[in-house]
Amino acid sequence: MTTQSGEFSLEAKYTQERGRIYLSGIQALVRLPLDQHRADRRRGLNTATFISGYRGSPLGGLDQALWRAKKFLDQHHVVFQPGVNEDLAATALWGSQQVNLFRGAKYDGVFGLWYGKGPGVDRCGDVFRHANACGTSKYGGVLACAGDDHAAKSSTLPHQTDHIFKAVMMPVLYPAAVQEYLELLDAIRARNLDASLSIKPTQCGLMLGEEVYWRSTETILDRVRSMGGFLWMDMEGSRFTDATLAVYRRALAEYPEVGVAVQANLRRTEADVASLLEIGGIVRLVKGAYREPPPVGTANRHETDANYRKILDLLFERGDRFAVGSHDSAMIEYAIEKNRTRPRRFEIQMLLGVRDPLKTDLSRRGHRVVEFIPYGPNWLPYFTRRLRERPRNILTMVRSFVSG
Questions:
Q1: 19 inside domain
Q2: End of a domain among 141, 167, 193?
Q3: pLDDT confidence band for 344 (50 / 70 / 90)
Q4: Residue 337's pLDDT band (boundaries 50, 70, 90)?
Q5: Which residues contact residue 237 at a Cβ distance below 8 angstroms, ignoring those fewer than 6 apart?
Q6: Could you write out the three-class secondary structure of the chain?
Q7: For the segment 273-301, what is each residue's pLDDT rounded down to a tens digit?
């Protein structure tokens, strides 16, 4: 590897602050607290880092890499102390977030990094739950890195940790999600496909805050814009609605070819759609796969259907371009009937493999039909959630399978 001056240096992976560097995934974790300290220092903060955990593949080499980088760690106030076991390490990191509860603290805050294998996450459940409930210090924060072993290559049983983190209410990061979206866009361009991308807010960092989600969206949007494509933004539970719409408005201000999903099972949606149409927003109207009880959500299926029709009326009255996301023949035919008197640019979106004969019929009638395709290793949790949150989806899928 070379430094900015062109001289070869193996240390550049930890010291170089601009340009390109080459490093492994483990080395990236070692560099993380160094960059955090640099960023804090630029903000005028005096912070430190505490790292603890328990070795285990595929993070088995992290402690060795940390020991080898000790001189760099010392320069950035990083203390590395392996734990006797995973839960003692997690408890120590919990304590690192309490240093400012007492007078005379040496640092403004402490960034914490926990690491361990999947079984270590199992045994840390109680610590994680309580530590997360207590929260972090103002200038602190803790990142927990878990090494999963899905194929049980070095474990007696296969394991996966993301659902355990979610169970203790810890936000889960998907660091590969944005890169996978970018690679998918490259594949769409290379094959000249008539396709667009739909991104999931929580997989782009929304649980860490609106600004994190915006930075991820901005990266993806730049690639979409470079290829002249279209970007859809999904909508998740109602607690994410405000932040999702705020980021959508920022994206729309930079690039007009971007749309957002809205859910008819939320009573606020009609007002949201009216507001979005005023700024040229493009929406995908769906019924909503999340269980949202009143007063936030609709009381029953009939109210949801009535709200769906009311929002369709609004879209055909004041909109120009939108998507009807539904497998409900009644809603689709309602939209088609409205289009006869108020022609609009709209498309019908359905899930892959659901109601295929209806898709064929609609296409033959001259309507644009788009298939929504979940892909990748996490497609099963996506379908499971949809079925769990809305059991009526099971009937829709069964009917689809029976009808071919």
A1: yes
A2: 167
A3: very high
A4: very high
A5: 290, 292
A6: CECCCCCECCCHHHHCCCCCCCCCHHHHHHHHHHHHHHHHHHCCCCEEEEEEECCCCCCCCHHHHHHHCHHHHHHCCEEECCCCCHHHHHHHHHHHCCHHHCCCCCCCEEEEEEEEEHHHHHHCHHHHHHHHHHCCCCCCEEEEEEECECCCCCCCCCECCHHHHHHCCCCCCCCCHHHHHHHHHHHHHHCCCCCCEEECHHHHCHHHCHHHHHHHHHHHHHHHHHCCCCEEECCCCHHHHHHHHHHHHHHHHHCCCEEEEEECCECCHHHHHHHHHHCCCEEEEECCCCCCCCCCECCCHHHHHHHHHHHHHHHHHHCCEEEEECCCHHHHHHHHHHHHHCCCEEEEEEECCCCHHHHHHHHHCCCCEEEECCCCCCHHHHHHHHHHHCCHHHHHHHHHHHHC
A7: 999 999 999 999 999 988 899 999 998 99
Say if 6 falls within a structural domain.
no
Q: How many domains does the chain have?
A: 2
CA 177 – CA 379 distance, rounded (Å)? 13
Nearest by Cα to 171 from 214, 128, 140, 226: 128
Structural domain that includes position 29? 12-167
Active site residues: 234, 284
Encoded tokens for 271: 């007002």
Q: Are residues 209 and 231 in the same domain?
A: yes
Q: Which of 110, 142, 167 is the last residue of a domain?
A: 167
Whether residues 223 and 308 fall in one domain: yes
